[in-house]
Amino acid sequence: MTDRVMRAREWARPVRPARREVLGSVPQLEQGRPPLLFVPGFGHGAWAFAEHWLEHAAGRGFPAYALSLRGHGGSEPAPEATLRAYAHDVVQVAAELPRRAVLVGHGAGALVVGHALARYPARAAVLVAPVLGGWSTLGAALRRNPAGTLPAAFGGGLRLTPRQLFSRELPDADARRYADRLGRAGRRAQWALLNPDQPEAAVGRPPVLVLGSPDDQVVPLSALNRAARRYDSAPLLFPGMGHDLMLDARWREPIDALLDWLDKEPATRPGA
Amino acid sequence: MPSSTDPGRPDPDPTVAPTRDGRPVSDRGDTVCVIGAGASGLTAVKNLREHGFGVDCYERETGVGGAWNWRHDRSPVYASTHLISSRPFTQFPDFPMPDSWPDYPHHSQLLSYFERYADHFDLRQHIWFGTEVVRVEPVEGDRWDVTTRSTGGYGPERTSRYAAVVVANGHNWSPKLPRYEGMEGFRGEVMHASSYKDPAQLRGKRVLVVGAGNTGCDIAVEAAQQASHCWHSTRRGYWYAPKYVLGRPADQVNDTLLALRVPLRVRQWLYHWTLRLTVGDLTRFGLPKPDHRVYETHPIANSQLVYYVGHGEITPVPEIARFHDRTVELADGRSIDPELVVFATGYLPRFEFLDPALLGDEGGQGRPRLWLNAFAPGHPTLAVAGLVQPDSGIFTLSHWQTVLFARLLRARAARPERAAAFAQRVTARAGERYSGAVKDSSRHWFEVGHADYLRAVERALHELEGGK
Ligand SMILES: Cc1cc2nc3c(=O)[nH]c(=O)nc-3n(C[C@H](O)[C@H](O)[C@H](O)COP(=O)(O)OP(=O)(O)OC[C@H]3O[C@@H](n4cnc5c(N)ncnc54)[C@H](O)[C@@H]3O)c2cc1C
Ligand SMILES: NC(=O)c1ccc[n+]([C@@H]2O[C@H](COP(=O)([O-])OP(=O)(O)OC[C@H]3O[C@@H](n4cnc5c(N)ncnc54)[C@H](OP(=O)(O)O)[C@@H]3O)[C@@H](O)[C@H]2O)c1
């Protein structure tokens, strides 16, 4: 394990604050369960979780929150945002919650969570269809969506198509509506996806769950397995679903599995 | 999270052998005892819990936050106290202060920060408030008997046996008050800065402030604004560093240089040069010339002192020679007639509950001899947290000290050979210093440079975990 104790560069150049959007849904009765903080991937905002998952989690007794990374959703515009600034946003929101939170990252939000875990001892972490970056991410994206990906490789916006994000079960109107809401990540953060710094070791040794779909058109199964192996586990799979598991027609299954896992995991059981 | 013992009132358990003098002892098994719930104690509780240990923390006051809890009788903070270290250097490394806070938060914000830290990590259930530790004694098997009683001294004493002890009792609550000839006969008011709370105490009076630590400088500035006259007595010249240089908090500029590994001499030169450009030559105001280079005394961060000296609201004077009934005679022979003398002469660390020899202080000089200012030779299950006077925020240092101790305790069970090698290093390196040259003074023996110190802790962690 490598603990980085001396962080002169970080202290000398603190991340500039940015106004953040945080949406939340809390259970009617406090049941001692840990709060969940959902971190959307690039292009998505807190809205993606407000659609179904926040309320569903609250209904099962978990206080549930989602933030929009700077430059996304209702947060302050931030075209020059870096991965570090995104991780900073996550840690800021997590530390403001009344109790130690579970971080849930989707897509490239999982990479952001990976970095945040080195700066905040989360109670647990869940990586949903994680995009952890590297050239293989680009390769997969190029193979599946050359027209949307190529401009990104030259600094343009990454365009994901509705068919990459959702299964055919999702009505077209919904798919279009969601796709229209997509924005884009900061140029520098997008570049950093190609060659991301390895996150430092997580502090506080949180248990980590990986889940995704073998039919995800953004994250191939091999990437899911690789991500899970990093944390000595195997991914939970939801065949037939698209990349955006929280918006797709069968959104209930993955969130229920996630909450079941938290209910069983000793670190996240009420009173732990 | 695995907990070796359930939290619960450590009631005396009659099945356990009594202490040497025959009192019953309750055996707390693998539980670790933490003394104090200030910043250092809180981070000790959190990090020990995070590493799977049961913890009993004793706090003689009724709340968390230690020095930063102004409700506590012994809190040294006064109404206007703001941090001297900027936010990134002050917050714990894994629990940031809110973005919306200023660069230099107010002491009430610090208290709310520690209260939120305690709640966020659910630490209060492990803390016994209103309970004072009166004795800590080593017993067989590197374990410890800790005797407590209700604060104030009433009620029975109880003794519990622990696997390890973290001493986090702070070092800014026991006033250091110098004595002078004729002091008893002085008709004016004399107080130590620890009882200074509010500028109203200075209003309209002729005030003499003694000492130019950060406390003395803050109080001199308030006296400049409130008192009818303010003298500021120092026994040497200092570097009065502004809180902002080059448009940024000064400590952030300094760490930019540290990140680039700029050597100390060059940093000192740059610092002298920046000060010359900003505050200028102070001797023309009558301030003595510093008898040392910058960083050789505990840094002062105060942008206002020089300003008020320049406006004639603070009169710098030399050391006190003696007191007369209505006047104070100074070392240069001058006499002044203050109505109130505030001694901002600092604080002394105290460990009354512990035999000084346990901390390597055989002569009882009040200067423990430890490795990393935390680990005592021959006592592998004892650690002190927060016994550092850093040129920066202290909480990050306490955090890593207690992480290191938690890892050491874990290694004792899982990798005893590593724990043994660590113990050897403690013995070999006790007394090591982590700063450049400093002026000899009662306050500088535990001065540390945060960069040197944290790098040493980082190495110690890597060595313990079998890295390089
Ligand atoms: C005016 C002022 C301003 C400061 N500003 C800064 C700053 O800007 N940045 C910075 O990093 N530091 C600053 N400091 C230094 C300050 O000491 C630390 O910030 C911090 O308070 C140290 O925390 P601690 O937990 O080690 O000690 P403390 O805060 O003193 O806490 C020790 C706790 O232990 C308890 N205790 C003591 N003995 C016993 C016993 N026998 N039994 C049970 N409980 C016991 C006490 O009641 C107390 O709650 C400042 C200090 C002063 C005086
Ligand atoms: N705003 C803030 O955040 C803030 C405010 C106050 C304090 N603090 C911190 O709290 C700690 C304590 O600070 P402090 O200012 O109370 O104490 P301090 O740093 O110990 O300073 C004491 C001052 O009194 C002088 N002195 C000591 N004994 C003396 C004697 N016998 N005769 C004459 N002068 C004497 C010292 O001179 P020498 O130079 O000779 O030692 C020094 O100038 C420090 O870590 C400080 O940084 C922070």
UniProtKB/TrEMBL annotation, chain A:
This protein's name: Lysophospholipase, alpha-beta hydrolase superfamily
InterPro entries recorded: AB_hydrolase_1, AB_hydrolase_fold, AB_hydrolase_sf
GO function terms (MF aspect): hydrolase activity
Species of origin: Micromonospora mirobrigensis
Domain AB hydrolase-1 positions: 36-249
Domain of life: Bacteria
SUPFAM superfamilies: alpha/beta-Hydrolases
Keyword Disulfide bond listed: no
An example Gene Ontology CC term for this record: membrane
Swiss-Prot/TrEMBL keywords: Hydrolase
The keyword Metal-binding is assigned to this record: no
UniProtKB/TrEMBL annotation, chain B:
Signal peptide (residue range): none
Gene3D superfamilies named among the record's database cross-references: FAD/NAD(P)-binding domain
GO molecular function, one term: flavin adenine dinucleotide binding
Region (Disordered): 1-29
Compositional bias segments (type: Basic and acidic residues): 20-29
Protein keywords: FAD, Flavoprotein, NADP, Oxidoreductase
Keyword check for Flavoprotein: yes
Pfam short name (any one): FMO-like
InterPro entries membership: FAD/NAD-bd_sf, Flavin_mOase, Flavin_mOase-like, FMO-like
PANTHER family given in the database record: DIMETHYLANILINE MONOOXYGENASE
Family classification: Belongs to the FAD-binding monooxygenase family.
Name by which UniProt lists this protein: Predicted flavoprotein CzcO associated with the cation diffusion facilitator CzcD
